[in-house]
Design brief:
about 500 residues; mainly beta; 7-stranded mixed beta sheet; globular
Amino acid sequence: MHPGHAQESSRSAPRIDVVRSWTHSRVRADGVHVEITRRQLLGAGLGLAGSGLMGVGHDGPAAFSLLQTAVGRRVTSGRTVTARYTRRVRRRSLLVAVVSRLSRRTLAATVGQVSDDQGNHWLQAVEFFTDGHFGVDIWYCEAAGGGNRPTVTGKCLNYPVLPGTDGMRMTVLEYSGARGFQLCDQICQARITGSTATATTNFDLVSNDELAITAIVGDMSSAIAPSGWNSRLADVTQGCYIADTLSSGGSSAGSSLSAVWTGLSGARAGAAVLATFVPRGVSSRSRRLVQSSYTDSAILPAGRGHARWTSQTYPVNPGPGNTLVAFMNGSIYHPRIDCGSVIEVTDSAGGHWYKAGESGVDDHTGINISCWICPSAVGGPTALTAMFSNASQQLACLLLEFANLPAHLKVRSVIRRSFGGDNPHLATGTPVSAADIAFAYRTSIYVLPQGPGSPAWKQMMSDTTGANALMMLDTPAGDVTASWSGSVVKGTLDILLIALSADGN
């Protein structure tokens, strides 16, 4: 419970139906109806093996199993939401957090960071906000430390300031059956406009037997989970419903996956998301994204801006020697737009940063995205200090930590587009080598929906009210093209594409 957050008393507790794992089938909390069925326990034939009731052969297919689900307090003000696991989590479990967001008027800020009190690393899988009122976020931790009951905390962006959140709640889930890293495979964002909603992965699955999680948030009074899927949550107060399938199928690789929600009683608007996870990811020695955190500060009043801004701290202290990347933007907005430029970045741990590129001055919308890189993190608590060329009224900052990237990265190509009303595909122009690295970032006033425009890209961050970041950690040889799904709904796009290679390549 955080200061300024309202919660519902037990006398007015909302109706929440939660399907828990079999070991908790008799637990009953105020306002929570717990139900278990044989089909849900079996989890499409995999749940018994994953729960330890049946042995899993070492040469058999991976089997996902839901171990536990917990629902946090509903908050009706502020920018923070929490939930705590009811039991100790197992070591190397896949942890998932789903946040529903409501707004009475136009916007409820995106969850830009998820962390816990056990030092686990969290990443955003997918988020979506639509129709001015409904938002949903899915975050995940690929390998829990285990042994404790983490309290998971989500923090929303500080922009927009108003109207803010009218209601938020976090649901956390724990799954066994996954190994390795870079587990998130495919995602989907879809709008709800009636009594049915279909969320289909942007691209084909890369693996068989993937775990898939879908969530919807809207103005419906009830919902029926996709056929063959397991209903995991029905939160009528938030209009939030969660379902999963523990296996996409033994021959699902190379095909798309759809989650079809039906029976959305009274639905006129809402958001639907889908995220899938492979049972076997890359090894800890592979190139991988370790953690991310995004913040977008409130805009200061005219004349109150300043040149020096300090970012949020990395949620977990970066590993010494890992590569740190930051995307930053700021501007003077009043009395006239002057976006300026970030001219220097330092950090509290003593790391050395250099600018890889920027999208260019856009004094129409106040956007000039810049990318900064620290080739070798010092370790310890790490927050960035950005020096602007002007007295910026705002800082938007995406912090990223990567493991196992080349020790010395050279900027190979910087392609940018400043202020345009379309959604072009940007190409490096100069061919890159195989196993180079590429980042792509775009920001605008309002974009719905969005995501990678090709399966070669993986999404690092999405804020559907205006920003998206993609990565390609192992490029093919030749031109690399940055592309996004979705179109510009309002305003304009500023885009930055950067290709990096190992120094000397």
